[in-house]
Amino acid sequence: MLLPSIFGENLLDDWMDFPRMDFPDVDRKLYGKHASHVMKTDVHEHEGGYEVDIDLPGFKKDEIHLDLENGYLSVSASKQLDKEEKNKKGKLIRQERYSGSMQRSFYVGENITEEDIKAKYEDGVLKLSVPKKEEKKIPEKKTIAIEG
Q1: Between 20 and 30 A from 76 (CA), which of 40, 46, 105, 125?
Q2: What is the pLDDT along the chain (148 residues), one digit of tens a residue?
Q3: In whole angstroms, what is the distance from residue 24 CA to residue 42 CA?
Q4: Which uninterrupted H or E stretch holds 120?
């Protein structure tokens, strides 16, 4: 049965959500069902550039990758839970910690290079510093005279 939806969310989710003993889904109201797959990001503009803070709690530095291609800065993170460790701890009744991968891209401009972007990861927050650079101006269209 097809149900009406907006942005991939079922309109009847809240109506069909029966009371249960559960933790409240605060992020669900902001980000929908896939809140655990969203990199919560703050972008601050300064005179000389941008400061980007991305929440990546529980990730290690080597699980985060930054790529710059065609003016797009892509941030990806991947985390897998160790099955052997899971079995040693006993039967899993509830799991709320994230396991999987996520990615987000930002357009930073064609003139930005890898050397321009500074990245620092501490306390579960990836801090990026992206400078503002002037776009190369495309010359105005000029008519060429034809001789003869």
Answers
A1: 46
A2: 454 444 455 555 555 554 444 445 544 444 445 555 578 999 999 999 999 999 998 889 999 999 999 999 999 998 876 665 556 677 777 777 667 788 999 999 888 999 999 999 999 999 999 999 877 666 677 777 777 6
A3: 24
A4: strand 118-122
Reading phi first (left if > 0) and then psi (alpha if -120 to 50, else beta), residue 87 is in alpha
Question: Which residues lie closer than 8 Å to 96 by C-beta, 6 or more apart?
Answer: 23
Element (H, E) at 27: helix 26-31
β-pair partners for 4: none
Question: What domains can you pick out in the chain, each with its CATH number?
Answer: 37-131 (2.60.40.790)
Residue 107, beta-bridge partner list: 72
